Amino acid sequence: MVSQKKLEGPTVSEDGAELQFAGLISHELRTPLYIIREAMTAVISDQSVTSQEKGKLLSLVDRNTDRLINLVEKLLLFVRLGQPQTDASSAGGKGDVINVREMVHSTIQSLETPGKEPLSAVEVSIAKDVPERLQVCGDSLLVEQALANLLANAFQYGHSASASKCPAVTLIVHTASRGSSVVFEVVDHGEGIPYEEQEPLFRVFYRGQSGRMKRPGGLGLGLSLTRLMIESLKGKIGFRSTPGDGSTFWFSLDTGK
């Protein structure tokens, strides 16, 4: 089991992965662009395509356009978070203030997708000593996005293949170190992460070989981005996982006490 520790991962340059980066990006961009081009060619030029078929093709274009937008947004955020940043506190600013309970519930609601299992099934437990408002060292939207990333991953992988466990995901928010930090823990009951895949889990481009990690269309940027988000807020991030018994991903932010 991996203890609660701060995980570190190399940057693109440190890993000598410039060519790998270019290859992955080219592949991820080419696939949806090719689909969009072929679909639009059929819609515009193929007279035999029916109205119903045109509707399906345009839906395909819409999905792949969203895929491209999501990819570009991830890449832009990855580049921005990888740049040297000025700490809000050292610059004389105090950073954003978030309402912890409101942020938790709005983040869960933002992940609701029609046709998919509702994320309202997530069990939420917020300790009484968690402050109502938390001042973060930077942009509060990064906290919401980091939490959303961990929740989405947990919900996707949080179902046990051998047994039905409810809820699939539990979100626990509590204080630590005598109230000096607030900890967000996202617990799933999935297959867990093999021990050999745990150490590099937060590295850039790492996708692993297990069923949990080997997902079509992934760049291996999701957890790396989440790590960068939390570290840009001067927080800590880590996980615990036992193969066959689920995983807990967590991050902590200082309260200023």
Short description:
This protein has 257 residues and is an alpha+beta fold.
Detail the topology: elements first, then pairings.
Layout: H1 18-45, H2 51-82, E1 97-99, H3 100-110, E2 123-126, E3 133-135, H4 140-157, E4 169-176, E5 181-188, H5 222-232, E6 236-241, E7 247-254
Based on secondary structure, the structural category is: alpha+beta
Provide the low-confidence segments as ranges: 1-6, 8-16, 88-93
- CATH architecture label of the largest domain: 2-Layer Sandwich
**Could you tell me the mean pLDDT?**
78
Task: Name the strands of the widest sheet in spatial order.
Answer: 2-4-5-7-6
CATH fold call of the largest domain: Heat Shock Protein 90
Proportion of helical residues: 25-40%
Tell me the Rg in angstroms. Answer: 20 Å
Q: Span from first to last CA?
A: 31 Å
So how many helices?
5
Strand content: 15-25%
Number of domains: 2
Q: Biggest sheet, in brief?
A: 5 strands, mixed
The CATH class of the largest domain is identified as Alpha Beta
What does this structure look like?
It is a single chain. With 257 residues, the protein is an alpha+beta fold. The chain contains 5 helices and 7 strands. The chain folds into 2 domains: 18-82, Signal transduction histidine kinase, dimerisation/phosphotransfer (DHp) domain (Helix Hairpins, Orthogonal Bundle); 97-254, Heat Shock Protein 90. 39% of the residues lie in helices and 16% in strands. Strand 6 and strand 7 (247-254) form a beta hairpin. Helix 1 (18-45) packs antiparallel against helix 2 (51-82) and helix 4 packs antiparallel against helix 5. It is elongated, with a radius of gyration of 20 Å. Residues 1-6, 8-16 and 88-93 have low confidence and may be disordered.
